[in-house]
Amino acid sequence: MGFREGWIKVEEVELFSEVIEVSEKLGLHRGEMYALSLALRINIKEFLADDKLARIAARILGLKGIGCLGVVMKAYETGIITRNEATNAIRKLVEAGLWISPEVLGEVLTSLEG
Is the pTM here over 0.85, yes or no? Predict the structure, then answer.
């Protein structure tokens, strides 16, 4: 699979003062700060981040913070992937090092069982 011309855009992003303030309080990295500022600038409502503090910052800033697990569940709920594909994707995420609390993992797997 080759790179498609124009698929990735490079944008200059100015940090919003409210993003700096929230990020400094939560100890976010500069990359997360720029990503949050870009989401606000281009009016994105959902912010993808697996870091819990980044998702908290997103909520404080009026965005919906979603992690990889949330993306898998949304794909299952909308019929993009099957129950087996969702379960396998979650298993692979955990094997790759994504930490999910046992309680949350249990809830998610139970909800996939129907």
Answer: no
pLDDT along the chain (114 residues), means of 10: 72 93 96 96 93 95 93 94 95 91 90 80
Residue burial 35-58, b: 16+ Cβ < 10 Å; e: rest: bbbbbbeeeeeebbbbeebbbbbb
How far apart CA 63 and CA 44 sit, in angstroms, is 8
pLDDT for the residue 80: 96
Q: How far is CA 98 from CA 67, 86, 92, 106, in A?
A: 10, 15, 9, 15
67-73 LR contacts (CB < 8 Å, sep 24+): 68/93, 68/98, 69/93, 69/98, 69/100, 69/104, 69/108, 73/108, 73/111
Supply the pLDDT for residue 46.
Answer: 93
**16 in Cβ contact with 40 (< 8 Å):** yes
Under a CB-based contact definition with an 8 Å cutoff, are residues 104 and 111 in contact?
no
Does residue 66 sit in helix, strand or coil? strand
62, two tokens: 């009026």
